[in-house]
Amino acid sequence: MESLLEELAQRWSDIFAALARGDDVPIARRLRTEGMMEAAVLVSAATREELDAAMDAQYTQVNGRAIGDEFDADWREFFPFPQIPAMGQRAPVFPSTRD
User: Fold this and answer.
1) How many CB atoms lie within 10 A of CB 67?
2) Which segments in the chain show pLDDT lower than 50?
């Protein structure tokens, strides 16, 4: 079971690092990782709370701040388990006319 948790940690790190660089993350990569999170709970490899703490550690390592600092303390209300709070950077938009 340890290899499952190590794989999840690597996937979270890869997802968060790509987003921090401004890269896109294929939806399939995020969805497969979320499926692994659900499977980890189903086979009792970890609890939801343990996975959230481990994911938060990866997020903090990449971004220098916790998920709760970024999305507020009740972030799981908006991103229900096993959803990963993986948001790309907003693209710069400039008006093409004065209007």
Assistant:
1) 22
2) none
